[in-house]
Amino acid sequence: MTLTIKSFLGVLLMVGGCWFYFMVMSKIGFLIITPIFLILLPIYALGLKSWWKCIMGVVVMTAIVYAIFSLLGLKLPPGILSGILPF
Amino acid sequence: MFQPDALIEAFYLFFTPEVFYWLAIGVALGVGIGAIPGLTATTGVALMLPISFALPVAPALGLLIGLYKGAIYGGSISAISFGVPGTPGAAATVYDGYKLTQKGQGRKALEMALYASVTGDTLSDIFTIFVAPAVAIVALAFGPSERFWLMALAIILIGALGGKHLAKGLISAAIGIFVATIGSDPIGGVSRMTFGQWWLMDGIDVIPLMIGIFAMPVMLVEAAKLLGERGIAKRARESISETLWKTGQGLTFREYRRAWKEMAIGTSVGTFVGMLPGLGATVGAFLSYGVAKQVSPKKGIGTGKLEGVAACESGNNATCGPTLIPLLAFGIPGSPVAALIGAALMLQGATPSPRMFALYPHIVYALFMIMLVANVFNLGIGRVFARLYAMVAQIPKPLLIPLILMIAVIGAYASRGNPYDVIVLVVFGLLGFGMTVIEMPTAPLIIAFLVTPMMEANLRRALLIAGGGWGQTLFGSPLAVGLIFAVIILVFFTVQYLKRVEQ
Asked: What's the pTM value of the predicted model, to 2 decimals?
């Protein structure tokens, strides 16, 4: 495949975004940072047009992923919400 | 070789509610992943690896096998509905499937794809169940030295067949061997290739590596494509053809029966292709399509015929079962998904090896049952929800990419709760992306990574047996020498073949 400078920088931004997401997650918690990550990346980096689709998808997916991982006993960082969450 | 006690134990493992609902979740997820263009069976199984790690062995296998089979079928849904293959394995289905949709027979095509997939899959699973134990008996006759050469043969074969270029495939395998040697030496216990980093002393964990190589680069490539094309041309939105469900009639039993010849071709070609290391569903489908077209030229396959769909779909799904034969018999995975299933078994403590049938017969028998029942789930879920999946396949890419990246990050982290695993994920994600850009296959890397520890152990054992003599170790038995010649001949013919293809 051919790679333009713009798309290469975009990929680096994605990877950097993943790392940043993880670093922030371990501080303030999965449930707070995930919706922010999943809304910022599509709209600012990838050019998604419809806001409502994004927000709906994000809220549902964050909840599903959190529920599955917690029920299986895989620990996700609770961050500042620790103590408040049921799991 | 057959062990009745193990079979009874396998029934206990298999008949639990957990196995059935994880199987259903696996198939349901898999069909969706297959239907979404850009996501493949390999990506899906890699992403579910951390979840399977948290489950007992039988539900874990149910999730992964269900997802694999579902995804291979799911690719045909978008291929037929809007002419975009959901997985590379369904690319051949577009020829006939999409033409049928344009003619207003989309529903027939979708049902043919489902029935052909399940038929091909079930028959090839039965073949696997009978052949794998027989091959495993042969594997037991091999000593450490022969096993070493067999594994070398497998790595070279996968490297050679994995991509367009022999050297690129072999470099990829070499990277895999290097990564596998990071950590402590299995016999001496000395740290190797750790660059003084204490967290590398345990070696690279398989879960972040797999997700890093198989899931992350796929999404990065999609992101690069999206960023590259934006502003130049606005992509036409794929839309479900109006005629797909309104006027289309269902498939009749007569039409299904009329395609028996194509399904037989697809099943046998797919089974054969699936067994060979380095090939996979895509080759299975295209080869079946080609053979079916040649065998019955009068049927007009390629002009929108149900028989064409039947050949491709039975061809790609028939590779699912037999691809596990080298894994179960020799402990050598022959395809990326087999490598992932091997890794899942390893995480469950049942490391695939030539003694798999002797050590863990109950797990192997439970795996066989799961394979067969997964086809039933595939049939049911595919039959009822095909239309829903055609809509799922239209999920916008900008939404999908961050979602998969998020699952990749937390999956890599949560399996062990180790932050360094995220570093491994990011590094291998970038490596995998770079490899994809220069068209270097990533499968040889992973397969070499999984095979190397076994290969090294066998080499060390053979050296101990021979008292340290390298000549005696490597060239001591006629079988070993035969395998070496096989390696040389194979590389020679691959180079010749690739040269001819290039011309």
From this structure: 0.92
